[in-house]
Amino acid sequence: MLNVGSINEGFVLDHIQAGKSMEIYHNLNLDKLDCCVAIIKNARSNKMGKKDILKVECSIDMLDLDILGFIDHCITVNIIQDAKIVEKRELKLPNEVVNVIRCKNPRCITSIEQELEQVFILTDKEKEVYRCKYCEEKYER
Ligand SMILES: [Zn+2]
To answer: How far apart are the two ends of the chain, measured CA to CA in Å?
Structure first.
């Protein structure tokens, strides 16, 4: 059983690949929010050996599930209310990610016009391939 500690309202991201929690912390812009965040690294896991856990005390509306799904759709999202898990959310690969990753093609319009949004489209669900909306450059993870 997951110990949610003193969180009254917020969410717990469980089954994060060990070592990935800081990347997720930054990609979700948690460093810019004024909320309480606990990062647990290398927790023991029956399923994964080692895992990271992120506990965040803030409204669930602040969480971008698309970005999270893009980073790792195997993460478990537990929604906490009144210090109890009230819901678990499934993540899926989003069809589109905006301003999360940058196109590396130097000839791409987004490399020249910096103010353009960085849009990547899921073009192959099975292989988890994303391509730049503008130049179709494949994103390499
Ligand atoms: Zn591009």
So the answer is: 32
Neighbours of ion ligand 1 (CB under 5 A): 103, 105, 108, 132, 134-135, 137
Q: For residues 9-30, give the mean pLDDT.
A: 93
The pLDDT of residue 79 is 93
How far does residue 6's CA lie from ligand 1's centre (Å)? 44
Average of pLDDT values for 107-116?
Answer: 94
Cα-to-centroid distance, 107 and ligand 1 (Å)? 8
pLDDT tens digits for range 93-109: 999 999 989 999 999 99
**HEC letters along 12-60:** EEEEEECCCHHHHHHHCCHHHCCCEEEEEEEEEECCCEEEEEEEEECCH
Distance 133 CA to ligand 1 centre (A): 7
Q: Provide the whole-model pTM.
A: 0.81
